[in-house]
Every structure is written in structure tokens, then in C-alpha cells.
Amino acid sequence: MKLGDFLGGLVLGAMPFAAAAAEMRDSSAGFTMQVEGGFDWAVAADVTGVQSTVVAATPEAEAPVAMVTATTMMEKNPMAMMGGSVREKTTEQFLQGLCESFQCGDISGRTYEEIGGRKAWVVTTTLGSPGHLSLGLPEAVMIATVTPQGFMQLISLHTAEGGSAAMEPVLRQAFASLVYDAQ
Fold first, then answer.
1. For residue 16, how many other CB atoms are within 10 A of its CB?
2. How is 85-141 classified by DSSP, letter by letter?
3. How far, CA to CA in Å, does 90 sit from each of 79, 101, 109, 130, 149?
4. Which residue in 100, 121, 125, 102 sits closest to 112, CA to CA?
5. Which of 25, 101, 140, 146 is the most buried (most CB within 10 A)?
6. What is the pTM of this model?
7. Of the candidates 88, 63, 54, 80, the residue with the CA atom closest to the CA atom of residue 149
8. Residue 14 in contact with residue 6, Cβ under 8 Å?
9. Structural domains for the chain
């Protein structure tokens, strides 16, 4: 499967490639973030059941090929809304569950840190899921957090082998630019 084929499947709010910086807007989850890095990003969004996703991808001809995704689980998690160590542990378990689904490699190097004024779990890992492998995106930098509304959220960057270290600043900048709609 090609990355363009994957993006073609995301139809709600699809936009053409944007010059250099792109706005990733998720109306369902109520947030906007900017993804930069000097690439022309294509942006698409979709809602499937309780999951809302917005994706930005570099053109397939550019190197490195990369995809930034923001996935929000649209059911509030009361444990994550409690704050403190309960929120931290709940977010860590969310990340661990996603990593099981994505067939991640080692995630023992994950860290809980503040980025752009928000606490989040961060990990760089490999992905073994057939979907990621067929797209040629076997590496990821993943940032798991909780939205102000209490939704679990994963902001991630998927890239070709050897590309995650160079692309991590792009994801961190995008995460730091998150602006949630007023409730």
C-alpha cells in the first residue's frame, strides 16, 4: 500500500498539499495544531466510531517519507481527569495498549515529560504492525496525553527506517503548538 492510497481513504476534510506548514484541525476532538519541518504536507481527517483522527503526510517523492497522526479517543476517561499520578499512570497504560496494537518494539525508554506546557508520555520505537510495514513506516515517535476535555490522545510521527531521530523535533513542535477549543 502506498501512503497516498492511505490518505485517499481519509475523506472528511481532505486538503491538498500545503506549503511548508500545515494546520491539522480536528473539529470532532476540538483542537488545532501546526506541523512544520520544511515539507509540503497533505492533511486529511476522519471519524471512525469513537476515534477521531487527523493525518498529515509528506509527498511520497520527498525524503524522508513521514506521516504525523493525531488520534483522539472520543470517550472521556474519568481516571485521566483525576490528575496527578492517576493521570500519569492512566496515560502510560493508554500508550502501552496502543503499542501492543501497533506491535511496537522496546518502549522501556519512554519518558514522562512536559512539552509546550502539557504533560505527556514520549517514546521512540519500531512498529511491527502490517499496516505500518506496508506503508514503509516502521519507526515512530509517539506522544500520549490527555486533552483538557478528558479524552485520551496520541500524537505520533511515523517514518521510514532510520528517520525517527531526525524527525522527532517536528513532532515535538507540532505537539507544543496544540490549541484546544474553548469548552
1. 7
2. HHHHHHHHHHHHHHHHHTTB---TT-EEEEETTEEEEEEEEEB--HHHHHTT--EEE
3. 7, 17, 18, 27, 15
4. 121
5. 140
6. 0.88
7. 80
8. no
9. 3-180 (3.40.1000.10)
DSSP annotation of 183: -
* C-alpha cell, 22: 500545515
H or E segment and range at residue 171: helix 164-176
CB-CB contact of 143 with 149 (8 Å): no
